[in-house]
Amino acid sequence: MLQFFLVSSYFFGSEDLGGFSDILSFFRPLMLLVIVLSMVVLTEELTQTYDALIGVTKLIVSCVFLYSLLEVFFFDIFSSLMFLFYRMEDKVNIDGISVSFFTLPYYGAYILCMLLPLTFSNYALTKNKAALFYIFACFGSIVLTQSKMGVFLSFGVLFIYAFLSSSFNKKIIVIIISLLFFGILGYFLVDFVSYLNKEVGGNFARTLHLILTNTEQAHNLNERLEDITGTYSKIIEHNPYVGVGLGKGQTIEIWIGTILYRYGFPGLILFILYFLFIGMAATLKLGRLKHGRPKEAELAKTVAIWAFTIFISQLSGFMMEMSKAAVFSMMMLALSARILFGCQLSAFNQNINFSSMKQYVKEDRRNNYCQD
């Protein structure tokens, strides 16, 4: 559908293709679909997929945490080595901030917030004290990015995970604690941020203090608001039902502006409804997976949290279709397809499989999976 909306933006919008690179961007939804379908095939066995994801999460979180410590506290010593790994032309502008392997701090924060529920589930299933290290490392890496979105979202991820993992009576307690926490945080936020800005410093405290105390001078906030209003004006001026074009060369960051520009109002509505559906459906599926299939239940929690928080995680930029963040996002889409439509996908795989032995095994697995 997004590819259809993008084609409509090209034919009925006001922006033309500029070159060969624009053609690749024009077919980006189709290329991302290929990645999703490939990952759907790779994630056929959800239990094995969970084990593999936990292993990958441990490796990524450990490497990012170690690299972040070196990048923030020992950059003068290891700067030449870091420049050898990849170019960092703008590192001077974000000195003291961890970007690790993700080019920009909010890209790293988004990916780490995506992996954070997996670190929680690792500890919940193993009760291993060593698993606490990965939770700490993931939280620490998010803090070192100094991404405002990442820091606040990490607390949201924690409370949503606790809510989904609790019994009905405990859910009420989690809600009360969450409201108290965010209420107290909101009440003392200005004083706390002022203290951090004065005593600790750093990009997080400085920019957040500016937003809270002098909104007119908060350029990032104003630019994101202008992204929405400017894109809205362009769409209404030309055609309210389609987007403007690819948006290459445009400095649109917030997800609402990007989707409006590229896919129009139908694309925006589809995006919102689709992720609300994924979040609700994965939450409902969780109730049937808790008994007997704990690893699949943890994957359902991870998908639900990712879907519910996507509207916040993309405030700094529409990262889910860009660079490394796109790979992680497409993995989450593949997992959502497996969790919500595993029976249908298994049946489809069986129909196109020409090995009788594999057909028998797949049918047996599908029957076991679908019997609930």
TrEMBL record:
Keyword Hydrolase included in the entry's annotation: no
UniProt KW keywords: Membrane, Transmembrane, Transmembrane helix
Membrane-spanning parts: 20-39, 59-86, 107-125, 131-164, 171-190, 268-287, 299-320, 326-348
Keyword Transmembrane: yes
Listed name of the protein: O-antigen ligase domain-containing protein
Organism annotation: Corallincola luteus
